[in-house]
Automatic annotation (TrEMBL):
Highest taxon of the lineage: Eukaryota
Region (Disordered): 587-617
Keyword Membrane on entry: no
InterPro entries: THAP_Znf (IPR006612)
Protein name per Swiss-Prot or TrEMBL: PREDICTED: uncharacterized protein LOC107342022
Amino acid sequence: MPDRCAVYGCSNQASLENNVSVHRIPFLNDDRVEAKKRRKKWVDFVMTTREKEDLTLKKYCARLLRDEIGILAYPTLHLKHKTKKEPLSRDKRMQKRNVITSLASHSEQPHTKKSKGEQHPTVCFDENEHLDEFCDENFLVEGPSTQLKDVEVQCCLVDKSTRHYKNMWATAKYKLQRCRNELKKCKVKLGYIGRLQYATYKYCERGHQREKLFPAILLHWKKYQSCMIEQLKSSGKQLVIAGDGRHDSMGHSAKYCAYSVFCCTVPNIIDFSIVQKNEVGNSPAMEYEGFKRSMDNLLKRNIPISTFVSDRHTSIAKHMREKHKNITHYFDLWHLIKKVSKVLKKIEKESGCEAISQWIKPCTNHLFWSVTTTFSGHGLVMLAKFKSFFSHIINRHSELPDRLFTKFAHDSNIQDRKWLDEDSITYIKMHAALTKRSLVPGIKKASPLEQTSCLEGFHSVLNQFSPKMLSYSYPGMFARHALAVIHFNINLKRYVKEINGVKQVKLVYPKFKNGEAVVRNVTVKPNFNYVEEIYQTTLCAIRYNTLNKAEKGLKLMTPLPMSSMLNKQSKDEAIQKHSARKAMTTIDVPPTNPVQEAPVSQDQTTGRAKPHCSICKQPMKGHKNVANCPKNQK
């Protein structure tokens, strides 16, 4: 083994020709105190890089010593490790730009087949260069072409003469994940070419929406609706339909109201109408106008309608009672249950009525049972069944007061509960709230069979196509509603997922259930085949020049803007009123007669009234002696 310097970064060998000498650590076996101090300086010099080795056996070259003479000399010169300088980011970008420019210029030239004697141009690659923005090391491209199939991305190659690899193309090493993400983006973007995606309207320009997309959806919706109505007519059945409105924003400031009609016999949404606020004057009247348009449209098409189900909208109820007497009108049971629950929860918050909380859910369940078990839909029978609940909560289960329903249908084994007292405040308020004149007619007309629950589910789907927090034009609102209807009808009856023959279910916890779980089926993924049908409709409309007619028809459907319902004040009049208001001066207006201060009486008491009983209205002082008060009769 030749004598070699052991210091990190120095690999000199002992050589007389190069004038290099190596030395051992002085005072190696000397135990004197002064010798140990001098030897320690040599050891500490290289301790940072050679701390795990036996430094006493190593040798060090003389180039590490300064020009000092004597036994006190020790190494003090550190040799820096030679490292490769990293190129700047700007240099990398400029190099890549030059490569892309050269590749683009080469790609414009036609490729000619070379003879056997000719050689391909030499293209060399430095492996240390990190040109990894465009190429994947899984792609090995040979020959003059670097074009990838389907995704037109070219590899960046660098012309250098530092290596001797000839007659081949090599791709650069790069970060795999980054390049794959770029290719995925290209695939997604290219996927929109040649077909219409279900969310394409989000990326289209306004002009393209107005001239192509919205008219195409209108044509497809008319064709789709005509096919549905012809199938309903050919079935020969009397149809049960349900209707409900949906405003585009909360409160009484909505701009649009979309009224949808659902066929309960053949589960499909068969019609909808969109009403703008300035067409009727105010927001509450929009739902009634949408109902009239949809009902008139269906009756003009001679659709056999036997029953109509809606919420308790007073204008709709009056319209059905006066103009459509041959159609049976029912109220949706879910809306009634919601109203009863809301009334009872309000009473529960009052003082002394806390006991009603345990009877809210039994009351709504009893209302549901009273309506759904009356197949004839007779209102008096449903009301008699519901009123039997007032006897049940006071533990009276026979000899009911109503002759139409004198006994309960449940078993005699009744679980013990905290029954209410007939003379208690809780029972009196509960009975008065559930027998109001505004609620009893609704219970009599509750729907025993079909409900509007599917429409509530459709409104949830509609929020994905036209969210309430965004504003749309009338054609945009119509197109989004039509797409939502088609999507809902196709995916309403989806199959349930099965694993090894077992149907899959899931648990959800709705807010109104207060922590109670609801079991729902796990269905397959939704179907979007209707997108291709809309695309084919668009091509046919362009071929037969019907797209322009549909665009004109959509313009005729669009109502005037909201500002048209206001009588705008002219500019001159506004300036004149403003100037007159600024020119007015405020003056003091004294009273007609002088103010006389009334003398304060010493016997004057405070205006607070004495406490009285809330039931008998007698003073609370000595109230325990009042015999006819219900509170004292407990």
